[in-house]
Structures are given as C-alpha cells and as structure tokens.
Protein 1
Amino acid sequence: MKDTRDKILDTAERLFSTKGVNVVSLRDINTAAGVSLGVLHYHFGGRDGVLKAILERRLPALAVERQAMLEVLRAGKKAPTLPQMVEVIVVPLARLAIEQGKGGRRFIKLLAHLNLEKNRIYQTEASKYSAPVDAQLSAWLMAQYPQLSVELTELRLSMALHAMYNTLAEIGEPGRAWFPHIEAQTPEPWQVVNTLIEFIAKAIR
Amino acid sequence: MKDTRDKILDTAERLFSTKGVNVVSLRDINTAAGVSLGVLHYHFGGRDGVLKAILERRLPALAVERQAMLEVLRAGKKAPTLPQMVEVIVVPLARLAIEQGKGGRRFIKLLAHLNLEKNRIYQTEASKYSAPVDAQLSAWLMAQYPQLSVELTELRLSMALHAMYNTLAEIGEPGRAWFPHIEAQTPEPWQVVNTLIEFIAKAIR
DNA sequence: GAATAATTTCATCAAGTGCTCAAATTGTGT
DNA sequence: ACACAATTTGAGCACTTGATGAAATTATTC
C-alpha cells in the first residue's frame, strides 16, 4: 500500500491544481486523503511544506531529463535546430502530462497556477532546478538569433511558456468549444505536443 | 468623490487579481477599501456578486469595441487579413491594459485567473458578452483556412488566448529574467502588443 | 422641515481555519 | 518478549471566515 506521505501529496496536488494552492484547506486534504488531522503537520509542517514536497517530488526528474536531452543535442554533429531546442523545454513536461496520467496533468496545471500568482516557494524551487538548463538554452538562443533584441526574445519566450503550461495542462480534456457548430474531437496527445512545439518555434523565430 | 460601489470594485479587482478570487477575504476588501463590514453585502450580496459586478463593469465595453472593429473590417473593400482578425481579439484588451493604467492590467490578470480555474460566474458572463464576436471570428477563420482541422485550430486558438492574457497582464512590468547576463529593458507597450499579434497570427497559420 | 428611503456602521453569530499536543497505535531492532 | 522510536489519532485552542440585522447616519422626496 502507498506511503502516507505520497497519499497526502497526491491528494494535495489534485486539490491544489483545481482552484489554486491557498483555496484548499488542510482539513480538505486530510479528509480527502483519508488520514487524520495531525499527520500533515507531522510530515510537512504545514501548507508550504506540502507544496515544497510536491515540487521536489517532480521537478528534479524533469531537470535531469532536460539536461540529458540537451547533452544529446550537444553531442550531435549538426547544430541543433530551433524546434529541437524547444523540445528540450516541452517534451519532458509533455511526457509527464501524457505518460503519468492525470497526476502529471494536475501537476502542470498546478505549475500554471503557481506561475500566475508568482508563488514564492515555487520561484525558489524552480530557480534551483530549472535555472541551469534555462541558462544554456537562452545562451544558445541569443547566439543563434543575434538579430533579435533581448527584450523581444524574452517576451516571446514568456508568451510561449504560458501557452505551454496551459496547453499541456488541458491535454486530453475537452477544451472550450470555439466552433460550437462543429463536433470537434479531442486531438491525439502527441499531436498536441507537436503543434505546441511548432507553435513556440514559429513564434520565437 | 468616487462612489462606494466603485471603490469596493476597484479594491476587489486589485486583490482578486494578485492571488485569485477565493483567497481574498471579504474583510480584506472592506478594510482595504476603507468601508465597513456590511456594505459589501448590502451592495453585492457576497463574493460572487462582487465578481459579477467587476465583470459587468468592463466586459460590455470590450464586446462593443470588438464588434465595432469587426464591422469596420466587414465594411472594407478587401477581405481582412489574419493579423487584422487577431487584432479584433487583442487590441481592445490591449487598450485596456495600456490606457486604463494598472486597473486595466489587473482586470486582465484576473481574467487569466478566472480562465485557469474555470470560474463558473466568469464563464456565464463571458459567453454572454463575447460569444457573438467569437462566433463570427471562428466562422471567418474556418472559411479562410479550410485546410486546417477543427481540432488543431481550436487548440491553437486556446494556446494563443492563454498567451494573450498572461502577456497583456504583465505589460509594462519587469518580467522574468531569462537572460540574466544582459540587462533587458521593459519593451514599449505597443511593441509588446504588436509582437503578440504577430505571435498569434503566425501560430494560427 | 418632516417623512421616507437609501446607505453605512458594528456587534454578533455559527462555521471553518491552521496548529499543537498528549495519548494511542504501530513499527523496528535486540 | 521487550524497549524504544516513529507514526497516527482526535480533542482542543485561538483565530478568521461569511453572513445577519438592528440601530445610526445620510440622501431624497414631498
């Protein structure tokens, strides 16, 4: 049977992702996880501790995977293309969204929330785990497209990131019906990811 | 002096936009607005009423402006271009962000929150005010680009919208430093908007 | 200016909140 | 089997929450 800690983290991740971190009461988490009031405090000390644990459960593996993809690109004979660089950002997250089931998607939606509200705990955790890869990617980007101004490139990257979080979070779920007169099917997950990569690459260039 | 109702709405808009709607207590709003406890309930009945009033204060004008832009495009001799259609979505919001000062930007950030958490009240309000324009735009888009599949187009639109909200909300504010080694200036507001329009147009086509 | 309506104040309520802690339970090593 | 540590429980605390309503204040109308 699953560890109590993980049971709490799973439940918290699920509840946090729907409405945001600070809307969920610790009692909600406890009762939904089927444990009693004190355990959460015993293990994590409080809401901040839970959030930190959630992040530290997934961010490291994400960073490792991105770094590995980057190494592969470096080792290749040809210079990497822009879509390939974008893949370094998108694919590991997409794998989370597609292969880890709903839990992965919830985590990504949680990331979207944390980004939007500029959550302090997330910012420190993110800079700890994703800063190295980010630095290499941006350095490459600047070298490759020297004609682009720094401000505009940063701007486009930030647009792209927001689009990515929100898209991956809703992968496989019925979206807003833009064309109500036509019955749209939910697209294949990896097709979504490819569209997203193209989207971002086009936007940057 | 400003109306009490507006004072409450301004304050609520500001507080809601930073951390999300349900994190802010009604007491926070009342004390920050400098009025006493009961007024909020007297005028709006509760949190939901405040949110609804906030939306109904800004959404109608937005819809009118979009509809007007659409009429101009219709009246033109040439068929509208894709960037022009995108402008119909982006420019009215951008005007809000740039010309209405911080209040406008806060409103947009609030929209981003409401979209992310699939807020019920927002969804009904949005469908009331923006559904007509949306329908015309999507019809035009489908007619213009019949080779695109419905699913992918919907997908790209939703990506674009998320990017738009998050970008416009942070207009004029120092963003995340992607290239820490270079001192980036905050770009000119309307340049941001133009980049955004290009970004979306490129992404759709 | 008197009468009426609209608005504002604030004490008060029940319910929910994060958090603590002693006691009960379970696990672990000897 | 025992001792000891780790974990779990649930009652309880101080505090905040949304909401109510009667009284006080201010606007409006005749």
Protein 2
Amino acid sequence: MSGVTIYDVAARAGVSIKSVSRVLNGERNVSEALRGKVQAAVDDLGYRPSLSARGLAGASSYLIAALVDADLTVEHWRSGRGNDYLSRMELGALMECRHAGYHLLVELVDVASPNLEREMLAMISSLRPDGLILTPPVSDCSVVLDALDQRGAVYVRLGAEAELSRGRRVYMDDRRAAYDMTVHLARLGHKDIGFIIGSPRYAASRLRREGFETAMQRHGLAVRPEWVLEGDFTFQSGLECGARLLAREPRPTAVFASNDDMAFGVLQAAVRQGLSAPADLSVVGFDDAPGAQFSAPQLTTVRQPVAEMAEAATRMLIAIAQNKSDASVERVHQVGYTLIARESSAPPPARRAAAN
Amino acid sequence: MSGVTIYDVAARAGVSIKSVSRVLNGERNVSEALRGKVQAAVDDLGYRPSLSARGLAGASSYLIAALVDADLTVEHWRSGRGNDYLSRMELGALMECRHAGYHLLVELVDVASPNLEREMLAMISSLRPDGLILTPPVSDCSVVLDALDQRGAVYVRLGAEAELSRGRRVYMDDRRAAYDMTVHLARLGHKDIGFIIGSPRYAASRLRREGFETAMQRHGLAVRPEWVLEGDFTFQSGLECGARLLAREPRPTAVFASNDDMAFGVLQAAVRQGLSAPADLSVVGFDDAPGAQFSAPQLTTVRQPVAEMAEAATRMLIAIAQNKSDASVERVHQVGYTLIARESSAPPPARRAAAN
DNA sequence: GTGAAAGCGCTAACAA
DNA sequence: TTGTTAGCGCTTTCAC
C-alpha cells in the first residue's frame, strides 16, 4: 500500500521515469502532451516524490532548517512558558514554505558546546538543508557561521547584529527603535529616565542601550549611571532592577526596560512600592509580548515583525535554492517596527502637577 | 568538501561499510574491537550519516512530524500574534528528539481542504515520518486519522477528545479541570456563574462546558441558559460575550471563560461597564496564557502541561520506532493540570457585604 | 523532446 | 562476528 513510485507513474502515463521527473521539476523542453499525460497519472495515483530519494539523488533536499538556541529552549521548557519569538518566526517560515513545497525543520543548537563546530558540520552533512534560518542568539555566533560558510551552506541571519557583513540578514533597527521610544518618553516630558539593559547574550541588548543613550544626549538629558541597570530579559530581573531603581532617591519618573518581561517586572515593583503607573511612573518595554495588551496598565512597547522577518528569510532561501545563482537575491533586508503607545507611558508627575 | 560517506569511514577503519552501519545503529553482535575502530574513524572524520540515504534505504526516517492546523496558523500570522500552544508543544518535542537523534518537522494541515485525505497520503509517502504528533484540532479530524491508519502511520493525538479509541493519545482531563474551576468559584460563594463556551472547532470546548454544568448541578446551582454564551476563543469574542453578560439584569457574579483570551475580553468588558474585578465580578479562564500573570487582575486559570504532553508523545513515538513492536507502548497517557488561583477570583459582592 | 543507464549513501538480506 | 551484494526512488549525465 505504501509506495507509489515514479515508476508507477511512468508506467501509467506510458513514458519514461525521466519524463515524469522533468514534469515534476518543471523543467523546460517538455511537450504539453507529455506534461498532460504525466500530470494525469500523478493525480490519479496521488503520487508525491519521496523526499529522501530526491535528497539523495539530487542537489536539493527541499528542507529549510531553523536553528534555535538550545539553552533558551531548555529555559523556556523548565519554566513552562512558551517562546513567543519562536512561534512567530515559525508562522512566517511555514507560510512561505507551504506554497513552495518546502519543509521546515527545527534544530536545537547548543552555542556553548565545546564541539559546536563539529556539531554544525555534522548537522549539515546529515540534513543537507537547502537553507538555514538562524535565530538570535545563534545568528550572532561566529562558530556557527564559520561552520556554515565552510560547508557553503546558504543561510539567513535573523536580527543579527554582529559581524554585519557576513551572510544574509533580515533585521530591524533595534537602535533606532530604542531611540524612538526614548524620544517618546522625552516628549511626554520625562527628564529622569531609567534604563534596564537586556541580556548580554543578545547583541540587540547593546543596540537598544545605545539607542537610549543617543536619544538622551540629543535631547540634552543626562544618563545617570545609577539609573542604568543590567537585567537578563526575565520578569524576575525586571522586578529586582525595578525595586532597586525605585528605592533610590531621587528616582526616575520613567523606566525603559529592554524587553516586555522586564517591564512587567518593573510594573510589579512599582505596585509593591505603592507607586501607580503611569501616574507616578511611566514604564515602557520592547517586543510587544503576548501579555503587553493585558497588563495593568497596558504596556507601551515596540513591535518587531518577527513573522514577516522569517517570511522574508524563507523567501530568500527558497529563491536561492531555485535560482542556483544567488547573486540576484538581496543580502540584507530591513523590516520596520512599530512603536505602540499604550497606557503605561504618560507625562511625569511634576508635569502633571504643573498642568493643574 | 561536503561529503564524507560511510565508505570513507569504512576505509579509514579498515572494515566493511556494513560494519560501520552496524556500529552506527547500535546493532548487537559487534566486537568491541571493531566498534572502537569504527567509532574512532567516525570521530576523526566527523562523520554523520545522511538522513536522505538512511531514509531511502531503511525503514526509519528519523523524522517526527508535528501536524498543525493551517487555518489557525494563518489566523495567528494575520493577527501578528504568536501561538503559545505551538511553541510549548515544540519545546517538549524538541527536548525529546534531541537525545534520540530524531528531527522535528512542522507540517501545516488544512483540515477544511476537500483533498485532505489525498494531501495526507501524499505527505506520508513523501516524508515517511517515523511518527506524527497531531495537535488539536487536527487530532480530532477523522479524515486525517483515516489517512494515517490507511498508511499504517504511527501517531499520537494531543488533547484528543473525539473517537477516543483511535490511535494513541496524550491528554488532560478538560472536563474535570473545568469542574474543579467551577467548584473553585462555588466555594468562594458564587451562585450566579456565567460561562463562555469555546470554539466548536475544538472538542475540548464541549468538555469544558460539560465540566462546568456538572459542577453546577452537583452544587445545586442553576445553569441559566442566558448566562451561557458561545465565543470562539478570541479576545474579541470574550469582550462581546462579556458585554452581553454584564448588561443583563440580574448579572452573574462570576464568569468562567473557556480560555484566557476570552477571559481577558471579559475583564475588559467589566472595566468598560465600570465594574472592577474581582470586587464586583470574578473572572476565570483556562490555559494559563502568557498574559495571565500580567493581567489586571492576574488571572485565575488552569495550566495545561503542553510541553510535557508533547514530550510524552514524542517519547512514545520514538519508542515505537525503535522497538518495532509497538505493543509495549501505552496507548493512552493522561497528564495532570494545575488550577492556578490568582487575583481575578474572589468572593462575590453579596458575600463580601454580608461579611462586613 | 525523450529515454536508458548510472549512481547518490545508506540498510537489508544473505553469505561466509 | 563480519563482509558481499542488491536495491531504496529519485536526479543526472549522456545518448538518441
């Protein structure tokens, strides 16, 4: 029952297997008559070529592999929480694979492994994916890039921020988004703005911080070192940093956390100190996490179009796989972001008082 | 550069390719000496067998395919939101694939397609996965099950609630969880409890409703038909149902929404009517969505161990693939749930007043 | 424009 | 315990 092969199709259509193969792969120099016969046989039999056989015989595997950081995955798994970035990335990649007849494989990469290079090489030779999507922080791991380059693998780096000239990239301007967010706070009248840095594991953390600092300078606002704390992108770290920030005297009138989870933590810290947001303290985040629209108050944040990024990346990968000449495919693709102003950001208390 | 094959390893170890194959597959009847030689050659060369070649020649593909509803994916993609269930499921599956040397493939399934059977058969013959993980609502689609059975494919249905005797299942007791949640409200003193049914697309919706109704009856509480509304698991539908529910006179003192997104909607509807939760109205959900701990008030809900379910499913699949005799592997695996009482559920206003 | 034959890199029978 | 041989179902030369 299991196997209708190219031979069955060829026999039914009364042609050679090579002709079936030609039709399947949309090659030129195939007469309409032949194409019709073959297509009919394919439909009758419900035939679909074996991925393994194609991969073994030909140059394409019709596989796109998404590389995901293993540590992160374990962390999420342990904490019982999902990974919003992962699912959004996949949605985009799947949408694009869907029509092109490609398949999406998700692979864990242990960036800290001492055998990383070897593992990457092994993965490539075992899977032979037509393209790879590198998610952060894997997209900034030079060992991974070296291994892929060594094998001539085609990849797109998502949100990459290091070694910008290597490979293809799809990214958004984190620095500028953070700049805009800071300006948003400044325009509301905030002068005393605290900042919580993200995990150093992500290159984006640095950029967000730079965007913040640049904006502060341009607006003549002082960046107080004691108001710039380092978190690790978790709620807990946001809670701790928030508590420290709000315990100081004087304390900032606004806090910009490098991601939403930390912003939620700051919000919580504010509540514990008897502060109400945004009346006493404005809090803004970054990511537009699933909870951002349900938090109290709803969180002002930056939305990164992750699905669109993955779509673009997958489209590039498939184009290269099909064109054979990858020269025509763009090397860098920038996507836009959206600053979503919700309830958690408002004018500072002083300004409010003055306005009364 | 790309291809170190089994021949290279055999040559280097001074043995036949069959011996290499034996060592690779951990077959018995291999001397330690031979195993050592082969392993050394494998390590030296950084060899890893080609998935395609293995799949083509042998019975195993080392592929686990996760079947995901295409409509849902498109919806999430359109709305720019992630899919928490998907990512949690994958975390679990990946954790389990990881050590066993299996790979996870994510496939979209269009349950509404007129050619669904054909598409499923084609997918199977093209991919030949060693096992399939069916996520809801695909896990309850009989056309899919028929196609898989016809091909003798091995699958595990996640959260399946229909045709319980078919195939293997990993699930949690939705009915009982909903029962418990209803009891939770009853114990707080609520007698007037509204309910929002989930999307009929999911079999779990029916079970949650049944759990609610059974609990109400057992506690001598009336289920008022006008307080039982049908939503579709979206925030918007929760908002609408909530508005309708709260506009009535008398109105319930508690609302049990079949999932968290709808519960968030009810919370929002309460705010718009000038009601404060949980003082005026208790609201509870189901799922423990990412926003549940950040909402205002934090949401009382039921946590489903999705990652653990996927882990168990993957473990079953791999065990079957390796044992060849699938008889020893359990057919049904039930996982526990956790009722998480947060801030959104509290005694009803009357009770509070009486207590004063 | 079409077909015949030769592999791709493995596993599976079957010998030895 | 180990090796030999024959495919698995395709794509790729290379003829015609």
